[in-house]
Structure formats: structure tokens, C-alpha cells
Specification:
This protein has 487 residues and is α+β, with helices and mostly antiparallel strands. The chain contains 18 helices and 11 strands. The structure holds adenosine monophosphate and magnesium ion.
């Protein structure tokens, strides 16, 4: 235990203090019988918290907001959002609370936030609660994303509340303790804009600049700089999702951060067989948030962000629009550049290779993988073996062998770097069938499978003996996968 370990958590209340218009002071519901189901010890240590304390009865109550230091000022945050394209002026934390910010050893502020902590004034018809399964899902997927080097909110703990939650059946309830570089969302800016309080909007933008995009402060138009920075981090983020086959599932504007971190793991999934139309959310009937649509949806959401900032960007509306459109025009190029260089890395190609060579190589491969519905993760991982001369595992997943053999010849000629490939093509991801198995067991009281899945995906690039089942595609019997928003 380091001497900075704290036996309580000193929460700052910056957001609560500086944005009373966007923050309703609120308390977490008292848990009947709190039980620690998961604690992220490395993250606790990174934040300077004492894991021994967090495992104690008082620590567990602190983790769910039931035993806060006196000076803490927990709040429910207000935000708006476009949900499946439809604008909801007042969403907000219906079942969540910001406990406050903590300053890490790196000096950076992080939000400590609860999900499933009871009804708030934003709850509408919701019960304010969360079930063990979905909270463990967020825990495991967010930690997997972190290990894959993709910006994301983190998960500090899942605590069972001892209270039953009514979903399709009665389920055990839980609270997730989430850590984020902030919870500023596109929807936060939509909300501030809709109040017509320009001062509030400006303060919120200044806060976002200071906290996430400080380089924008020095630009001649800092708010245009903020827009450009958010466009840039989101373009990179979504490209990274695409490269690992991640489908977020509910890319509403309230689920898109200004920091560029992935947030709100609801009906999300990693693709099994490569299918650009993959949709996993049971409520996404039109496929709005299908795998292939994610880059376009992000661009659409960023346009909503630009609209929210317009009055700060220029007092003249026409000029504001012109500047915002110009900034938005950079999105596609930034997205494509990140995606393309990521694909080159997945293929082990040297940097600086001619686009005219690399680009058709990538396109032709994806066509073969798609037509074969090859397991996306396994295929790219086995391509590393193919780079070492062991082509059969990859070949076994492709239908058109003549075309693939011709492709392999073109690719081998470029001397792909197998070790570099293994550093970017994961072997262990939270596969849907394993996730379901783990969450069902946890719902029945056995967190063992979830712990083992977490251990596998927390170190996704290095193959370890004994973990074969975590590397294998779903069995045929698993069928089409659906996840539910009734989280
Ligand atoms: P999400 O789709 O999870 O991002 O949530 C969208 C909105 O619904 C947010 O305002 C949430 O706070 C709210 N919400 C989701 N589930 C519940 C619930 N069980 N009780 C109250 N509010 C909820
Ligand atoms: Mg949300």
C-alpha cells in the first residue's frame, strides 16, 4: 500500500459547484445488503485509493454512495439527447449520480460516477435501478476496451445491492462505480444551448476546453478549436471501434463524450462473423447503429455538437455555420486516415507503404472475409500466423481459396511483420457467448466465469495456454445474438 493510499475518497465538487443549472443535488438509494461483486484493484491503486479499505464494509458503502465524506456533493447531471434521431430535451441521469471528481497522481481530474443508484428527478418512467448482468457487462467490456488501447470510461467496482430489480423477470440489482475523464456529452451542450443562456453555454465550453482540449484555448477562436478537437478525438475513436469490430449499439448524442472516451455500454457487442450490417441491440429495428453506420452516425452527432456551439463560434449565424461546416469537413479525412493506418497495422505492413498498393490489398481482403463471414477477431489473429508461414488457420476461414491464395502472395511480397500484427490484433475479446455465460452465472450468484473472462480480456494480445476457449468463435448453436437495452 503506498503512503498516498486514502482510507476515504476526497471528492471535489467542481461540476456541482460551477454548473448548478446542470446539476441537481441528490443522494444514492440506501442498499439493503451491499456485496462487492468486482473491484478493479489496479485502477483503485492508479487513483490513489486503498483497495483494502474499498473492500471493507464502509468502503463498499462508499463505492455506492451510501457512506460519503460529509463534504461530498453528489449530483444528477442534466443533458438532452437525440435518441435514434429524435430529440429529447430533458434526459439527464435518471439512475446515475456524479459523486464528484478526484485528482489522480497524474494531476488529471476524473469523475467518480454511479449507475443504478436509484431514481432521480430525471428518472421519468424508469425505476432508477440496474441489474447485476448489465453492470458486469459494462465492467468487462470497458476494461477490455481499455486493454485494447481504445479510449473509454473505466469501471472501478460492481456492488450487488441485495435488492431485486423487475425486468422481464426479477433480477438481482447492482450499482456500477464508473470512472471517466468527465461525463460531458454532446447532449450536455445540447441542453445548455436549449436553455438560451449563452453564459452557461460559454462556461460549459470553457470547462470542456480546460479539462479535455487545453490546446484550443490558445487558438484565435477557442470554441471553433473545441469543435475541431472533439471532431478529431471522435473520428479516431470510432475508427478504433471499427478496427476491433466493436458495435456500440446506442450512439445517441447523450452517449457521445466530449473527451473522446467510449461511454455507456448498453446493448454493445464485438462482431463474430464479419458482417458490416451487424446489429445487436434488440431495440435498433432499423439498424441505425449497425456496425457500418457508426462512422456516419458519429459525424451526424458531431453536427449536433456544432449546432450547439454555433453561437459561440461566431455571432453571425451564417459565418458560424460556414466555420462549423468547414470543421466538420475534416471528419471524414481524419476518420479514414486512422482507420486506414490501423488496417495497415493489422496487416503488418510497414509504415510509409504506397497507398496505391496497400489500399486495394485491404479492400480485397475485407471482401473475402465478408463473403466468408469469417470470425473477425480470429481471422486477423490467424493472419499473424500466416505471416510466419502457417497459412492454414486463416485459409480455413475463407471460402474462395483461389482468390485468397493470390491475395496471400501479394501480401507476403510486402514482408508483413508478424510480431507487430500480434500487438494490434487481439486474441481475447469479450465474446458474446462467453459474456452471456458469465452474466447468467453471476446472476445466479457465481462470479467465477466473469472473473475468468475479465482476466482473459484484460491482456488481449498475448496468447496464454489454458485460455483456448476464450479465443474460439461462438459455437453454431449460439445463433443470432441480441442484447437488450432494458439495462
Ligand atoms: P441510456 O440509453 O442508457 O444512455 O439511457 C438513456 C436515458 O434513460 C438516460 O437519461 C438514463 O438516465 C435513462 N435511464 C435508463 N435506464 C433507466 C432506469 N432504469 N431508470 C431511470 N432512468 C433510466
Ligand atoms: Mg446514456
Amino acid at each position: 500500500m503506498s503512503d498516498v493510499a486514502r482510507s476515504t475518497i476526497a471528492f471535489e465538487g467542481f461540476f456541482a459547484r460551477d454548473f448548478p443549472e446542470l446539476a441537481i443535488p441528490w443522494r444514492a438509494e440506501e442498499a439493503a445488503d451491499p456485496q462487492l461483486l468486482a473491484l478493479n484493484q489496479p485502477l483503485a491503486v492508479e487513483l490513489g485509493f486503498d483497495p483494502h479499505f474499498l473492500r471493507s464494509p464502509e468502503g463498499i458503502r462508499l463505492l455506492i454512495g451510501n457512506a460519503l465524506p460529509e463534504e461530498a456533493t453528489p449530483v444528477a447531471q442534466a443533458y438532452s439527447g437525440h435518441q435514434f434521431g429524435w430529440y429529447s430535451p430533458r434526459l439527464g441521469d435518471g439512475r446515475a449520480l456524479l459523486l464528484g471528481e478526484v485528482a489522480g497522481d497524474d494531476g488529471k481530474l476524473r469523475d467518480i460516477h454511479l449507475k443504478g443508484s436509484g431514481r432521480t428527478p430525471f428518472a421519468r418512467n424508469g425505476d432508477g435501478l440496474a441489474a447485476v448482468g448489465p453492470m458486469l457487462r459494462e465492467y468487462i467490456v470497458s476494461e477490455s476496451m481499455h486493454a485494447l488501447n481504445i479510449p473509454t470510461t473505466r469501471s472501478l467496482a460492481v456492488v450487488g445491492t441485495g435488492r431485486q430489480v423487475q425486468r422481464e423477470t426479477l433480477l438481482p440489482g447492482a450499482v456500477l462505480t464508473r470512472v471517466a475523464s468527465s461525463h460531458l456529452r454532446v447532449g450536455s451542450f445540447q441542453y445548455a444551448r436549449a436553455t438560451n443562456d449563452v453564459d452557461l453555454l460559454r462556461r460549459l465550453a470553457d470547462h470542456a476546453i480546460e479539462r479535455h482540449h487545453p490546446s484550443s484555448a490558445g487558438e484565435s477562436n477557442p470554441y471553433l478549436g473545441l469543435l475541431k478537437s472533439v471532431i478529431s478525438v471522435q473520428a479516431k475513436l470510432v475508427a478504433q471501434w471499427m478496427l476491433v469490430g466493436f458495435v456500440h449499439g446506442v450512439m445517441n448524442t447523450d452517449n457521445m463524450t466530449v473527451s473522446g472516451e467510449t461511454i455507456d455500454y448498453g446493448p454493445c457487442a464485438f462482431m463474430d462473423g464479419f458482417d458490416p450490417g451487424a446489429v445487436y441491440s434488440s431495440i435498433d429495428e432499423q439498424g441505425r447503429y449497425a456496425y457500418r453506420n457508426q462512422p456516419l452516425v458519429a459525424e451526424w452527432n458531431l453536427a449536433r455538437f456544432a449546432e450547439s456551439l454555433a453561437s459561440l463560434i461566431h455571432e453571425d449565424e451564417e459565418q458560424a455555420v460556414a466555420l462549423a461546416v468547414e470543421a466538420l469537413n475534416a471528419y471524414r479525412q481524419q476518420y479514414s486516415a486512422t482507420w486506414f493506418s490501423g488496417m495497415q497495422a493489422k496487416l503488418g505492413l510497414p509504415e510509409g507503404i504506397d497507398d496505391g498498393v496497400a489500399s486495394p490489398l485491404v479492400d480485397d481482403l475485407l471482401e473475402l472475409v465478408q463473403e466468408s463471414r469469417a470470425d473477425y477477431t480470429s481471422f486477423f489473429r490467424s493472419l499473424g500466423k500466416a505471416a510466419r508461414g502457417q497459412v492454414e488457420p486463416a485459409r480455413g476461414m475463407i471460402l474462395d481459396l483461389a482468390a485468397f491464395d493470390a491475395w496471400l502472395e501479394r501480401w507476403h511480397a510486402l514482408a508483413p511483420d508478424a510480431d507487430a500484427m500480434d500487438r494490434v490484433n487481439p486474441i481475447y475479446i469479450p465474446r458474446n457467448h462467453l459474456m452471456e455465460e458469465a452474466l447468467s452465472a453471476a446472476t445466479e450468484g457465481d462470479t467465477g466465469p466473469a472473473e475468468r473472462l475479465l482476466a482473459a480480456v484484460s491482456d488481449p494480445f498475448s496468447e496464454r495456454p489454458g485460455l483456448e476457449k476464450y479465443a474460439e468463435p461462438a459455437p453454431e448453436s449460439f445463433g443470432p445474438y441480441r442484447t437488450f437495452c432494458g439495462t
